[in-house]
Amino acid sequence: MRIADMEHAAALLDDLRLAGKERFVSDRTLQDAAIRRFEVLGEAAGHVSKKTREAFPEIPWAQMRGFSSFAKHEYWRVDLDRVWQAIEETPALRRSLGRVRLNHQRTA
């Protein structure tokens, strides 16, 4: 399920958040890991049904898809400060994705 993939990527991003911005900014491996997780989020978001996207408008579906494409095709322009800002938003994203999963479980 794509939502599970998204939850997993968001959890890994949240782990990076807990490591702190200083460590993130100084470690290219962490930067690459974060960007990869955002790529996964965006790719998975592109496979979520329109019905689900409309039911959970607080999730930035289009922005995730857009960043994923941007990171893949214009990687040299990725701004680490903006990546960090997005990482800081992962706790809220995780909560929202959890609500999506629970909703799917109730309706399945």
Report on this model:
The protein has seven helices and no strands. The protein is mostly helical and 108 residues long. Helix 1 packs antiparallel against helix 3.
The total count of helices amounts to: 7
The first-to-last residue Cα distance is: 13 Å
Oligomer: single chain
The shape is globular
- For the secondary structure, the number of strands is 0
Question: Can you tell me the residue ranges where pLDDT is under 50 for at least 5 consecutive residues?
Answer: none
Structural class: mainly alpha
Rg measurement, Å:
14 Å
Kindly give the count of domains. Answer: 1
Strand content: under 5%
Give the overall pLDDT as a whole number.
Answer: 94
Q: What does the largest sheet look like? A: none
Helix content: over 70%
SSE topology:
Layout: H1 2-19, H2 21-26, H3 28-45, H4 50-55, H5 61-73, H6 80-88, H7 90-107
Helix pairs in contact: 1-3, 1-7, 3-5
Structure, briefly:
This protein is mostly helical and 108 residues long. It contains seven helices and no strands.
Which structural traits does this protein have?
mainly alpha
